[in-house]
Amino acid sequence: MNTIQPEAARIMVVCCPQLCGLADTRAGAQMFDQVLAAVTRFCPGVEAVEPGICAFGARGPARYFGGETALARKIIAAVADIGLEPRVGVADGLFAARLAAQGPDRVRGPRRVGGPGQVRGPRQAGGPGQVRGLGWVRVIPPGGSAEFLARHPVSVLAEQDLAGLLNRLGLRTLGDLAALPFGDVAGRFGAAGEAAHRLASGHGFLPLAVRPPAEDLSVIQEFDPPEALAEPVVFAAKALAERMHEGLAARGLSCVRVQVRAVWADGRESRRLWRHDGFLSAAAVADRVRWQLDGAPPAAHDGEPGTGGIAILRLVPDQVVRATGHQLALWGEAVVSDRVARAAMRVQAMLGHESVLRPVPDGGRNVGEQVTHVPFGEKREPRRAVAQPWPGRIMGAAPGVVYPYGREAEVTDDEGRAVTVTGRCVISGEPAHLVIDGEPMRHVTGWAGPWPLSERWWDPVAARRRARFQLLTVDGRAWLAAVQDGRWLIEAGYW
Amino acid sequence: MGRMGSAPAAIRPVPVGVPEFPGVSGAGTLPVLPVLRELLPRGGLARGSVLAVAEFGLLCLALVAGASADGAWCGIAGVPEAGVLAAAGLGLDAERTLLVPDPGDAWPQVVASLLDGCELVVLRPPAQAPAQVRQRLEATLRRRRGVLLVTGDWPGAQVRLRVITQGWTGLGDGHGRLRACCAEVMADGRGEAALTRTRWLWLPAEDGSITAADPADVPIADIPAPEPGRVLRAVSGG
Fold first, then answer.
1. Does B110 sit within 8 Å of A448, measured CB to CB?
2. Alpha-carbon distance B231 to nearest alpha carbon in chain A (angstroms)
3. By the 8 A CB rule, do B48 and B145 touch?
4. In this predicted model, what pLDDT tens digit does every residue of A389-414 receive, in sequence order?
5. Contact predicate A480/A468, CB 8 Å
6. Which of A232, A241, A256, B190 has the highest local Cβ count within 10 Å?
7. Are B100 and A402 a contacting pair at CB < 8 A?
8. Topology classification of domain B30-159
9. Strands A10-15 and A87-92
10. ipTM exceeding 0.90?
11. How many structural domains are present in chain A?
């Protein structure tokens, strides 16, 4: 296998922190469109990374405009005219350049920068320098990316699960991770670890040279009549992206950059390149289509029917890499076939996104918690640790019927008195009769419990104490019941 | 969705799909767990057919589990209380399961859509299905060569299954915990399924699977007396 690193590409990232939080607003998207137009005047090959952030190869333009810092200042001045304060980072590779641009104090979302490894930037290399009081630029010199990255905490990695795990293992910075042998990391953490190690060592994400595809792998969807609303187009984009991925997968390829082209019925066209650090999933492509359409001139939305709508949507995977085991299937996730995805999405179109769910076995002490339902199309991952022991969980057979909400019930003893449970988990009498939700009374022939469970006692809002029972009724059925706040609830049925 | 109206819907009762390969899980059937084979006329779920199970529960999930473990996608519509964990214990692959807890009034369309993607659809109709709706769905089913498992009543069902009696072991008066359930399952139907068959099953057995039971050692309606060590373990384990 060809493992020669391609010469590290100098990447310039322009980041507009004001727009990053406005990802899904039209105003933000339109402003970002202006930013892209402004940056494109300096370099034609500008790629959008996500709302508020764009990137391009800096080598050529920097030479033309007299150096990277000079180019960055020109871009900052141009973007400042729109009314924004951009931050520019230049480094080897997109990952380092993006961190350089986002800087120590403006890292968004779940990413945190902290600890002793605070990045102040190599001043000797010309940055970070204030430019006319608006925005700033930080240049990481060629070959200095690994050193720059080493001080960042692992939480800057996009894979938050992996970052958390690395943290617990004592690998707190990217430098710690990069110091480990590549083979060991790949062997222990699989493809995700391999990718993280590459990023941390400043090699960039891509193991092999990126190349344009040899054949036309684009997919196209025509809307007849033209679609005036963005939502159905985004919806179609998901299926379209799925199709594109299938075409790519059949050739053993993955896509790292995609061009989204939308053509309106009145002839206007929007083209944009979207780049991703990892691999673009179908849902990720659909997100990017939405961002792009949001930024499109508003004529599309308030125009008269028939002229304003989108007629053609085309996805062109214009940079592909050989797929090296990054498929979801590697982690045991069943690959959703096109056929199933179409069926599920058709139901979602009828009833809404949340109507089609995929179950995920989850951790937890109560039967209702042990399965999480994830809307189709979203990432299936358990919320709680499945492998932990969860003391207090009821062992033995699992119930075939688990009610989404506990059903009100009354449990009485032989003399018809309600059975109660004290704070010390002592019951007032033996359960003899069970009435569920007004159904006919059932005689209780066997029971076990109470099994106390005190959950989240440290949190006054979420805390709850309950005593659980298994009840056997004369009709041969068995029930899982719980007493909480003096009320009996039937949570599940064993049949 | 023009496909629903176009098929000849009048040939409802004809048993569909001549088995291309006579055998347990040939192309004409979806496989079921081995212990359930004897209950079904062709040793599996005949493609294009409707099965009716009297009530939603482990029997229903068990019928689905074999096909799901074999790689089939399974849709469950109208059953918000499906116990996925128990089903997974029987062999259902949760990754290849779609749940539509509340299909609402559009349930015939939802089921038709699900049948496009899933080999197997479990349905509890929110309301009694009119004959016309049923016939259309059956036509879709034959065309898609899927299997519809209805919980409740479905007049055109080829096979009907229900649990006649069941009894749990392991629970005493204030001690123990549920361990295993012995159930008598009856299957009948129309055509080749007309012969009534009954089987005793552990539904589930202590290890969560389904196995054949011997009526002789079935403790119906009273709690068995297992060896003393087991009771102790049950108490401490609960």
1. no
2. 12
3. yes
4. 777 788 888 899 999 888 999 999 99
5. yes
6. A241
7. no
8. Rossmann fold (3.40.50)
9. antiparallel
10. no
11. 3
